[in-house]
Amino acid sequence: MASLRPLFITTALPFSNGPFHIGHIMEYIQADIWVRFQRMQGRAVHFVGADDTHGAPIMLKAEAEGITPEQLIDRIGAGRRQYLDGFHLSFDHWYTTHSPENFALSTDIYRQLKAAGLIYVKPVEQFFDPVKQMFLPDRYIKGECPVCHTKDQYGDACENCSSVYAPTDLINPYSTLSGVAPVRKSSDHYFFRLSDPKCIEFMKGWLDTPGRLQPSVANKAREWLSGSGDQALADWDISRDEPYFGIPIPDAPGKYFYVWLDAPIGYLAALKNYFDSGKARAKGEQRSFEEFLAAPETEQIHIIGKDIIYFHTLFWPAMLKFAGRKVPDHVYVHGFIMLSGLKMSKSRGTGLSPLRYLELGMNPQWLRYYIAAKLNANVEDMDFNPDDFVARVNSDLVGKYVNIASRTAGFVTKRFGGQLGQGPFDSALLDDVRAASQRIAAYYEQREFGKAMREIMEAADVANAYIAQQAPWELAKDPKNDAQLKQVCTISLNVFRLLTIYLKPVLPKLAESVESFLRIAPLQWSDSQQLLENHVIGAYEHLMTRAESKQLDALLGIDEAAAKPDEKATGPAAASAVNEVTVEDFAKLDLRIAKIVAAEVVDGADKLLKLTLDLGDGQRTVFAGIRSAYAPEQLPGRMTLVLANLKPRKMRFGVSEGMVLAAGPGGKDIFLLSPDAGATPGMKVK
Question: Per DSSP, what are the bridge partners of residue 82?
Answer without folding.
Answer: none
